[in-house]
Amino acid sequence: MSKIGQPFFVRRSYRYHDPGVRVAIIEPQVLFEDNHCLALAKPGGLLTQGLPVGLPTLWAWARDYLRHTYHKTGNVYLGVPHRLDRPVSGVVLFAKSSKAAARLAEQFRERQVTKVYWAKLDRPPAPPEGTWRDWLRKIVDEARAEIVPEETPESKHAETNYRVIEGDLVELRPVTGRMHQLRLQAASRGFPIRGDLLYGSAHNFGPPGELPRDRLIALHARSLEFLHPIRYEPVIVEAPLPDYWHADNSNMSPEETSR
User: Fold this and answer.
1) Measured between alpha carbons, how far is 79 from 47 in angstroms, rounded to an integer?
2) Is 168 an active-site residue?
3) What is the pTM for the complete model shown?
4) Looking at residue 251, what DSSP letter applies?
5) Which helix (H) or strand (E) holds 183?
6) Could you read off the pLDDT of 158-207 as tens digits, one per residue?
7) Which residue among 19, 170, 187, 253 is least crowded, i.e. fewest CB within 10 A of its CB?
8) How far apart are CA 107 and CA 117, in angstroms?
9) DSSP E strands: which ranges in 82-195?
């Protein structure tokens, strides 16, 4: 099994900054790359992929990186087997061929990928270790979800294992992959993820954003473990915490940080 992470395996990176993104200079990091896979550390505040065309995204950055590094012309294929929410940082895995994309997508779909997140909560959970099980449903015409009774139409089962690492720092291991699963499950139990104002956090987190969509939350995709799509050997890719995790303004209220 190979374990990959920053800084040893960071081979190339270059700055990408768009004036429309107001949280900070955005600088993805290459965590792992071979002929079939590309794993990046996504900064919080950057979309993984999105529309309309031209909007700053990690996917666009990665394609530019491949063009720039390997002097490619024409279309650059880059498959997206999974995504992270815009305010979340951490590991994102791309596929550099259609064969790799199909095999990685199947692993995510069949829950064969081990995903580990770190989160800072407004307060520590009790008990300090356990499993959250809920039924979630996306709210129609809104970019959020809700917890509902099991028999509710269009509801989906959500399950997450958690443990306290230290203080309010928690490790989250989702078994399922529902919309806003970690954010909603934590918040519904009275300890929202810090900075997640959408689900009731009382504090901001990280560099302040001018618009609500620019605000970051204390949720970080720490690692991914998957089978290499060609060699079928286990690979672990790990992303370091962003610098703002070590010096955040999370004790300030949203009103204070907006002044």
Assistant:
1) 15
2) no
3) 0.87
4) T
5) helix 181-188
6) 999 999 999 999 999 999 999 999 999 999 999 999 999 999 999 999 98
7) 19
8) 18
9) 89-95, 114-120, 129-138, 145-147, 156-166, 169-174
